[in-house]
Structure formats: C-alpha cells, structure tokens
Design brief:
With 89 residues, the chain is of the alpha+beta class. It has one domain: Glutaredoxin, CATH 3.40.30. Helices cover 38% and strands 28% of the residues.
Length: 89
C-alpha cells in the first residue's frame, strides 16, 4: 500500500531562504517520486503573511517544513535528511 505524505512549506514572499528551501524540497520530491515504492507526496505552501497563527508560531524560523503536520526542519532544508525521512517507514 502506498503511503500519503503531506509536506507543508511555511514561509513568505521575498524570503531568499524560503526560495532556497522550495528548490530543495521540489528537487527531493522529484527524486523520491522516481524511486520504487515511492510514497504519494503532497506539497502545500503557506505564507505567514496570510495566517496570524502561523506568523505567531513560526515568524522567526521561516522557512519551516512540516511533514504530516510535524516540524521536520527550519531555516535550511537538508536534502539528504528530507529524502531519508520521506523514504522511511
């Protein structure tokens, strides 16, 4: 059975670290999806400018990457660590 994994990238427009994180996440998604028995990955992007609760919680940590609602990483996304997390299980 194929797993569904929801990734949420929290950031804001004009944030260069957020742009870098997006590139890393998208590259890892492409790599993981090409592997055998890959999970189904769903990526949502959220801006702290559009959500007061996200701003209050994560304003000093963006970009933040959540995997299934749990913080995986913030500031800089390590592609090896992310790939390992997505393929585990």
């Amino acid at each position: 059975m194929t797993r569904d994994i929801r990734l949420t990238l929290i950031g804001k427009p004009g944030c260069h670290l957020c742009d870098d994180a997006r590139e890393v996440v998208q590259a890892v998604i492409t790599e993981v999806e090409a592997s055998d028995a890959a999970p189904r990955l769903h990526l949502d992007e959220r801006s702290i400018l559009d959500d007061e609760a996200l701003a209050a919680r994560y304003a000093e940590e963006i970009p933040v990457l959540l995997i299934d609602g749990e913080v995986h990483n913030y500031w800089r996304i390590d592609p090896v660590r992310l790939k390992t997390a997505l393929l585990a299980g």
